[in-house]
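Dear H.,

Thanks for agreeing to be a second pair of eyes. The structure we're designing against is below in token form, covering all 369 positions.
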């Protein structure tokens, strides 16, 4: 039996490669295995694309979500079309950059992501940008990113300001003439949420970043103001505009970017279809399988591709909600062990290996039909 393991990360516990290796250990003897760690635009996107493209990484001094100086990394890949920079917004503007008590999306900014983009263009000379969305600490609609690229934001008194959501509450005008020239920008996006409304950035993702119910209402009001002042109604409605706290919107509106499937970008670079074609069974997974999985996350992309080839596909996760089950032939999670989340994450590799070993008999039966 030949198994292809195409896992995304178990966030906060295992990288995509570590998850693939744990699953391989759990499968044990009598199975041949092919690894294909995946990403969908979030953390791991740069590593996956640079590895597939034979590129390199570059360090740049940027701002973290609170505006403090930090060093972040992006990738560079040479191709026939010229130098391509691969950027994860989380590298500069990710939630991992903040302590728990600092998680306040009313005060955070995507300026550091704009810093990375500017460095890639002006210092490295990139002719194309691939920007991966996911793992953000922000809910600024991409205004901080736009500011770093030269867009100016003015309050009701006519004074310019650095646009985090608290400041954007007084946004009255913006000026785009100072924005630097930008190359082609493709945005790898793993969700289909618009910017505004009950499925928008503030309502769905704000609480994950520390926003209270009152904060969510405030952020929604601010995002509406940003859309109105920037005349960005069309961009705000695009599926994916709400990704990364609305950075999807900001890249569409202020950088002329195009949103594409992050999974499709990575799958093409990794030649995933060819690898799945040789499989008897496909195993995928990530830390949490839930309703967001079906909105474009990597494991759902793996499942769609595998099923199009008639391959059985199963998923392993730290936790798996029934709503995600329609994407897979079977799901297995680590919650069966009844451990506190923190301990389960700390022992992720060990528990994942054990869960796969327990399920191996069922997997073999699945392949045999």
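And this is the sequence the design step returned. I haven't edited it by hand at all.
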């Amino acid at each position: 039996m030949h198994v292809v393991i195409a896992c995304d990360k178990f966030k906060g516990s295992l990288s995509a490669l570590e998850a693939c290796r744990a699953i391989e250990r759990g499968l044990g003897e009598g199975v041949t295995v092919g690894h294909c760690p995946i990403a969908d635009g979030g953390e791991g996107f740069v590593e996956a694309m640079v590895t597939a493209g034979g590129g390199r990484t570059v360090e740049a001094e940027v701002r973290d979500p609170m505006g403090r100086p930090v060093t972040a990394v992006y990738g560079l890949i040479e191709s026939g079309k010229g130098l391509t920079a691969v950027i994860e917004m989380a590298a500069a503007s990710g939630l991992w950059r903040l302590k728990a008590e600092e998680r306040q999306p009313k005060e955070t900014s995507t300026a550091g992501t704009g810093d990375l983009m500017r460095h890639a263009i002006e210092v490295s000379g990139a002719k194309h940008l691939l920007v991966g969305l996911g793992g953000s600490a922000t809910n600024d609609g991409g205004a901080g990113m736009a500011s770093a690229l030269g867009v100016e934001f003015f309050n009701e008194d006519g004074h310019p300001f650095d646009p985090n959501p608290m400041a954007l509450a007084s946004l009255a005008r913006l000026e785009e003439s100072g924005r630097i020239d930008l190359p082609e920008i493709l945005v790898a996006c793993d969700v289909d949420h618009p910017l505004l409304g009950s499925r928008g950035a503030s309502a769905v993702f704000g609480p994950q970043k520390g926003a209270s119910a009152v904060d969510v209402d405030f952020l929604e009001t601010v995002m509406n103001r940003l859309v109105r002042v920037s005349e960005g109604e069309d961009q705000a409605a695009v599926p994916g505009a709400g990704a990364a706290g609305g950075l999807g919107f900001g890249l569409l509106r202020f950088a002329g970017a195009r949103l594409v499937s992050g999974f499709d970008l990575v799958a093409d670079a990794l030649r995933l279809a060819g690898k799945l074609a040789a499989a008897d069974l496909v195993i995928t997974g990530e830390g949490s399988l839930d309703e967001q999985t079906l909105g474009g996350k990597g494991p759902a992309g793996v499942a769609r591709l595998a099923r199009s080839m008639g391959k059985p596909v199963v998923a392993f996760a730290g936790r798996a909600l029934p709503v995600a089950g329609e994407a897979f032939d079977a799901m297995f999670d680590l919650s069966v062990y009844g451990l506190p989340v923190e301990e389960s994450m700390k022992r992720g590799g060990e528990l994942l290996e054990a869960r796969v070993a327990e399920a191996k008999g069922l997997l073999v039966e699945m392949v045999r039909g």
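Two observations from my side: The mean pLDDT is 94. The longest helix spans residues 348-368.

Warmly,
E.
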